[in-house]
Structures are given as structure tokens and as C-alpha cells.
Amino acid sequence: MSTATNIVTAVRIHGVDKSFGPAESAVMALKQVDFEARQGELIMLVGPSGCGKTTLLSVIAGTLRADAGSTEVFGQRLDGLSQEELTAFRRKNLGFVFQSFNLIPTLSVRENVMVPLLIQGISYGEAAIKAGAILAKVGLEGREDGSATALSGGQQQRVAIARALVHEPPLLICDEPTSALDKDTGGKVMEMIRDLSHSPNRCVIVVTHDQRIFRFADRIAEMEDGRIRRVVDDPRQLETPSY
Amino acid sequence: MYRLALNMLFGDRAKLAMLLCGLSFSALLMAQQSSVFFGIMSWTYTPMVNIRASIWVSDSEVEQVNDAKPMRDTDVSRVRSVDGVSWAAPLHSSIMQARMPNGKFKLISLVGIDSDTFAGAPATLTQGNIEDLRLPNTVLVDEWGANLLGHVVIQPDGSEKIIPLQIGDTFELNDTEARIVGICRVKRAFTGGPFVYTTYDRAKAYTANVRRALSYVLVEPRDGVSVDDLRLRIERETGLKAWTSDTDLWHWKEGSLARSTFWWFWKNTGIPFSFGTAVLLGLFVGIAISGQTFYSFVLENLKYFAAIKAMGASMGVLARMLLLQALTAGMLGFGLGVGMAQAIGRGMIEKGMPPFVMYPQILWATFVLVLGISLISALIGMVKVARVDPASVFRG
User: Fold this and answer.
1) Does residue B351 sit within a domain?
2) At B103, is the secondary structure helix, strand, or coil?
3) Strand pairing class (A42-46; A27-38)
4) Is the whole model's pTM more than 0.80, yes or no?
5) Count of CB atoms within 10 A of residue A55's CB?
6) Chain B residue with the nearest C-alpha to that of A101
7) Rounded to an integer, what distance in angstroms lies between the CA atom of residue B141 and that of residue B216?
């Protein structure tokens, strides 16, 4: 998607460390990680369980602070921001697709999608219109007023994608978006993520260990033991992964 | 977000029902027990409500209206002689045993009023004529007493039926006949016995002509003379104690016999402690049930709050969402609880006991306490939500 002539960096991570637990028995989840994601691309973070994918994603999303190193998203250094500033940054710039969907069961499909807009202070009526429009795009027209929990897993993830994109964030963070879905549904969901989110101004970062969806990536960053092992343009360049 | 907060609350019907149960039970307990407390306390100064006169003069040792210290009949004349008095009338008040035609004894409150002016007579007579009190051995009985002292008739099916006393029926007071010439409507007394009204002189006869039968002197000031001024003047000139007859709990002042009675019962009986304990119990039960239920509501929704937090909702927005949910539940619980308390109270009033007085102040106090419980519940939830790590949403 991106070309060598107009590469714009969306996310730049440099020398990031992150450990958990008390100092004497700390577990290093990230070790001097350097990572870059570009505008207009869909990049996947892959690797075995416990390699630090989710920790790196959390640092990029500004929900977790690194112990050392720098985190820059769209030119904004996150490590220097206060908690309130980080919250405001996420509100404006990030969309999330979670592994377990995290749709609120007591709200309707439409209301779930409206959440990011309402957080931004958009009126209920306007948010409802925008949510309806994007739900139509993900093929859930007519299901807007039903309960999100009445939908199938694939449909729920489509609602989650609609929720992640409704406020048009420049960075879309997807955490294991297909792990709770079967192969066909997972493929369709990834197609949807690729088709709806791919735009020159948006960067999509997908954490996964689902090899079936590697083909949707523009680039793949393979992690191992808290480090980026390598970044490849073609999934076939990866050795047969064991994860 | 606030509309969504309400939808989240109303969407979980089971939790909402549990929350409302806790809050409404708490509101019910606090409002109902407080209302019964004030109802019972209002019974303690019932004579002040039933017998209307601006000033009540008593022996200087009197502390509460039900414990009159006998005075001399001449004290009425002494009071009359005080400048500013329009009229002064004697009043007898005592507890007696009435012997019914079936030989059973019943406790009554005997009230002897001035036979010339009938000052102190009940305001409402539902049957009979007050003038008939001038006839020999005649009395008035209150409606409740007419039922309480009524004849028990065995029905063909074996059940008992009470035939209320009627005009013309008789009973005995101290071996002297008392013939009913009227039925009156008055407020019931704390002592439990019905009011039996007769003239002052006959009351003396019924009490076997005790040397001192005067309980109170009822006084009305002349036009233009203030009650407070006259009260103080009577005390100064007679050495007796003069009281105002103000029975408004929320506005009575120093010198009100009803106020003095209220506080006497407050200090010398276990009534406030007993009801206070029930009100506190309601408060604690409310905090425990509502706090626990709201906490579990927050706990069940924690991953969604974490997701909303990750999406960029500030803690302020989340706190206001929780506050709105808790306060909405609180207001609904208050409405339900107070509604139930009112319904129970109405049932009580219809059956005659226990007394039930729900002052607006009780409603306000209950409202404030229930909202306080909701606020505590919301705070517990806020602490949990504040501590939740938004990064936890990435942990599956």
C-alpha cells in the first residue's frame, strides 16, 4: 500500500523497555524494542504467546507506560503526556477492536457503536445517525436496535469494527480480532478491517498469532521474547511459525 | 454518555431489582419507623390537641401534660384575677377504671370540663348534644372508646361482634353511674384509654370528691393581650406554671406544654432509642444491600468500563455515569419505599394504631439519607473503576 517515495511514519517506538512485578523478580516483557508503523499500512504484530505483543500494543495505545525509551504516535510523544492528556489522545486518535469484542450487553447494537462519539461529546442524535451509517457499511442494517449479545460472534466483531471506526481515528488497534472466530468468519472480519480501515491517512496495527490472516498484512513484525525479531513484507518470508 | 449510563442500569433488570429492593426497603424502614415514632410522640400530648385553650396553668412541678399535679379549686380564681385574663376555667384530668355492664373493668381518661362554659369540650360531637352534659350522671365518650368499651355479642356462628356504646348506654365510674349522652371525635391518648368527658363537678364526684381535683386551669387572654406576656404574668403573680398550647412540633417554643411533654418522653422513655435503632438499621441495611449490589453491578461491568476508559473516556465522565446510575436508583428506591410506607401508614390509620405521622421533614430526611446511600454506593464503584487498568482490555 505504501510506496518508498511517500512513507509517513505513524508510530515510532525506540528503545522501549517494560517490565512487570517487583524489581527483584521483574519479568521483562519488552526489551529495547524498536518498531515503526506507517500511515496507510496494515501491519501485524505476530509471535508466540508471552512474547510481548499485547504489551507493545498497550504501549502504542497509551494505556500502558513504558519503563524506558520513547513512544511517538503521529508525531506526539506519549511518554511525556499526563494521564488526562493520554486519555484525550486516545479519544481523538485511536479506534479499538478487542479480542472479546467488549460490547456492552445491556445496550443496543447502535448504542454500542455510538460510545466513541458520545465520549467525544457529540450529541446522542448525531451519534445515532453516524452509528447507523457505519453499521450499514458492516452489513448490519436492520439489526441496529437489537441487543449486541443476540448476534453471532462474527456479527459482534463487525459491531466492534464499526465502533472502532465510527469516529474515524487515524490509528486502529486490533487485539487478536479473529481468535474467537472460525476460519471463514475470521477471514471475512479481516477483509472488512482491511476494506473499511485502509486509507492513506490511517495506520492499522493488528496483534495476532492466527497465521490464517497473515495474508491481509502489508508488513508483519515478528516478536520473540520481548524483542522484534524481524519485519517482513511478505508472510511467506516467515519460517513456518510454531505459534 | 449519560443516556447510555441509564440504559446500562435499566438493561440489567435483575441487578436493578436487587438495587431497588435494598434502597426501597431502607427508605421504607426509615420513613415508616420515623413516622410511627412521631405518631407515638404526638399521642403523648394529645390532651393539648383535643382541649383547646391558649394557656394552660398547672402546678409549678408539672413537667408533662399526662402527669398533672392536683391544685386547689381556688387557684382558678387566682388565675382569673390576673390582669389580661379574658376567662379561666377549671379542668380535671385523671385515669380511672370504668366498670362495664358485663362486670369487666376498662381504663379510661376522665376529663372534667367547666360546667358553665364547657370550656375544653371536644370540638366535634358525632352524636348527641353537649348541653345534655348538664343532666345528672352524664358523660361523652369518644368514638374509639365507644368501640373499645362496647358490648361483645356472640354471633350464631360463634364469632364475637362488638356493638359500640350508644347514647343511653351506661357504665360505672367509682360505683357511680355514667350515662352516655354524646359521642365525640378526638385524637387518641398515649395511655391507651378512651376519653370520657363530663363536667368538672361531676368529675370530682366520680373521683370520690378528692380534696384537690383541679388539674389545669384553661385560660384565654383578653383581646390585644399576647399569650406569652400573659403566661409570664400568670406565673409571676400566682407562682403557678403557665404554658402555651402550641402543638406544632416544628415551630413550638419554650413554654409550650406539648414541647415539654415531647422532651420529657424523649428523655425518660426508651421510645427514641427504640425507633432510632430501627432507623439506623434501615440506614445500615440500605448501605449494605445497595452498596454491595451496586458494587457487584460495577464489578460485572468493569471490563466494559475499562473498554470505555481505553476508548478515551475520562474518569470524570465515568464518575458522572456511575453517579447518575446510583442517584437514579436512589430516587426510584426512595419513591418506592416511601410509597410503601404511606400505604402501610394508611392501613395503620384505618385500623387506629399504631399512630402514623409522616411529616414533610421525614420525607426530606429520608430522601437525603437514601441519596447519601446511593452516593456511598457510587463512590465504592468509582474507586473500583478508577483503579481498573485500561490496558486490561487487551488481556482477553
Assistant:
1) yes
2) coil
3) unpaired
4) no
5) 25
6) B396
7) 21
Percent of chain B predicted with pLDDT > 70: 98
What residues of chain A have any CB closer than 8 angstroms to a CB in chain B?
A: 54, 57-58, 61, 63-64, 84, 87-92, 94, 96, 98-100, 102, 104-108, 111, 114-116, 118-120, 124, 175-176, 207
CB of B92 within 8 A of CB of B72? no
pLDDT of residue A2: 43
B313 and B199 in a single domain? The answer is: no
Domain count, chain A: 1
pLDDT for position A241: 61
Residues of A in contact with B396 (CB under 8 A): 99-100, 176
Q: pLDDT tens digit string along A85-141?
A: 989 999 999 998 888 888 888 899 999 999 999 999 999 999 999 999 989 888 888
Cα(B166)–Cα(B183) distance, rounded to whole angstroms? 8
Q: How far apart are CA B208 and CA A134, in angstroms?
A: 96
Report the share of chain B in percent with pLDDT over 90: 42
How far, CA to CA in Å, does B280 sit from each of B277, B286, B395? 5, 10, 44
Find the domain containing B284 and state its range: 2-42+271-394
Cα dist. B125→B25, B142, B299 in Å?
A: 41, 9, 63
**Sign of the dihedral through C-alpha A33, A34, A40, A46:** negative
Domain count, chain B: 2
pLDDT at A1 over 50: no
Which cell numbers in the block locate residue B131? 348541653
